[in-house]
Design a protein that fits this description.
The structure is a single chain. It contains three helices and nine strands; from the N terminus they run αβββββββββαα. With 186 residues, the protein is α+β, with helices and mostly antiparallel strands. The strands form two sheets. The chain has a seven-stranded antiparallel beta sheet. A two-stranded antiparallel sheet has the order 6-7.
């Protein structure tokens, strides 16, 4: 087979693979838009801040309890830099270049840590995970993972977010949404 034909065949296969990945992501976006049809808007007055802004990386949002089922609708599947602030009314995740995420205190169901989620795996308790319900019509809960840049900020963020749950009487215990080492080996 001539070299030019081999190169052309390889380029066609590469183009088909890229097209398949793009089509798969579009289908995931369409499918997850049914689970999360809308996101809450950031309120004009979120109340006083309980924390200073903390630098973080927005890792991804997945369906609660399923750390690999990434939600692609509304840009929730796209990793981005973030600045996280806890307010009296909820948690603001400001994402430059992407839509800001507002987790209202009354929609927050759990706050914890995990070692990984779709898109990022780190050491034990390396990610802050907010479990919340963005749209009450579907009732689908999401796990939103954040990798906070500084450990001191991580502890402040966890404490402040858990205080939102305690204010409602919900507690806010840790949970680990990623599998343990024993589960991975099974």
């Amino acid at each position: 087979m001539p070299t030019w034909l081999s190169v052309a065949l390889l380029l066609v296969l590469l183009a088909l693979a890229l097209w398949g990945m793009r089509a798969g992501w579009r289908n995931r976006t369409r499918r997850t838009a049914l689970l999360v049809p809308t996101l809450p808007d950031v309120p004009a007055d979120a109340g006083p801040a309980r924390t200073e802004p903390a630098e973080a990386v927005y890792v991804s949002s997945t369906r609660a309890g399923d750390w690999l089922d990434r939600v692609a609708a509304h840009g929730l599947g796209d990793r981005s830099p973030a600045v996280v602030t806890v307010h009296d009314a909820g948690v603001l995740v400001h994402r430059p270049g992407a839509r800001d995420l507002w987790v209202a205190a009354d929609r927050l169901t759990a706050v914890g840590t995990a070692r990984g989620q779709a898109g990022k795996f780190v050491g034990p308790e390396g990610l802050v995970v907010l479990t919340w319900v963005p749209d009450l019509t579907t009732g689908t809960a999401l796990d939103t993972a954040l990798r906070v840049r500084h450990d001191a900020d991580k502890e402040l963020l966890l404490t402040a977010a858990r205080s939102l749950l305690r204010a409602r009487g919900d507690g806010g215990a840790d949970h680990d949404s990623a599998p343990t080492a024993q589960e991975e080996q099974a």
